[in-house]
Each structure stands twice: as C-alpha cells, then as structure tokens.
C-alpha cells in the first residue's frame, strides 16, 4: 500500500500574476518562500506558505485558458482554509473589497463556512474550526 504523508502543495495558474500575488500575500496573508522568473517559459513561479508550511505554487503563463465552469468543473473544486472566526475573516475581506457568500452551516459537522473567489474565479472556502 502507498504511504502518503501529507499534501505537499497545490499549484495554481493566474491570468494576472501581479493581481493574484497581491491577493494571496496581502489579502490572504500567505508568506513568500521564493519567487523566480523562468525566461524559457516566460513564466513566474511563486512559492507561498501558511504558518511556515509550504502550501501553494502560483504560476503565470503567457496565455492560459480560462476556467470553463465553476464550481462543479472536473478537477480542483475549491481551496479551503481553516479559520478561528468567520466574522473576523469576513470583516477583513470586506475591508479589502473581497465579497463573500452568506455564511452557511455544514449539515454533517455543524461547522460554519463561507466562500469567496480568487482573482481568477477559483472558489476559496473559509471553514470555521
């Protein structure tokens, strides 16, 4: 049997690298581990961490195709971050002009959650723990 240890990272492709870099670092608060420009691909690669744990690779490419549908398209449905307080999270997002859906309650766990979209429309969930 395979012995997986943990999720290592998620890779995202941004349509506007600077806008997405700002969103993930300044609004969501992820820290930059490293950033590199790959001239042979005309592509940026930004490694991001949360609380010191490597989490996301953010890429740029010259002309990436848009996401076809959301959120039920085949492939990655959404990213989910655990938060201590949905009210504080939504207030912070509101201060940065990031709209969120109404807060809902998970019917199985009784926990509350909400969704936003990143600059390219990728759904991001905040799940209160």
UniProtKB/TrEMBL annotation:
Instruction: Recite the UniProt keywords alphabetically.
Output: Metal-binding
Q: For the VOC domain, which residue ranges apply?
A: 6-129
UniProt keyword Metal-binding present: yes
Residues that span the membrane, as ranges = none
| Coiled-coil boundaries | none
Task: Please give the superkingdom of this protein's source.
Answer: Bacteria
Q: Name one GO molecular function term.
A: metal ion binding
Give the protein's recorded name: VOC family protein
* UniProt-listed Pfam families: Glyoxalase
Which NCBIfam families does this chain map to? PRK11478.1
């Amino acid at each position: 049997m395979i012995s997986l240890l943990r999720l290592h990272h998620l890779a995202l492709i941004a349509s506007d690298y600077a806008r997405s870099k700002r969103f993930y670092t300044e609004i969501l608060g992820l820290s930059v581990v490293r950033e590199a420009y790959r001239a042979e691909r005309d592509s940026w690669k930004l490694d991001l961490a949360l609380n010191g744990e490597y989490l996301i690779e953010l890429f740029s490419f010259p002309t990436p195709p848009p996401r076809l549908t959301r959120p039920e398209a085949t492939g990655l449905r959404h990213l989910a971050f655990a938060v201590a307080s949905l009210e504080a999270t939504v207030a912070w997002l509101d201060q940065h002009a990031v709209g969120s859906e109404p807060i809902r309650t998970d019917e199985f766990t009784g926990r509350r959650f909400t969704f936003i979209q990143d600059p390219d429309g990728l759904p991001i969930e905040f799940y209160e723990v």
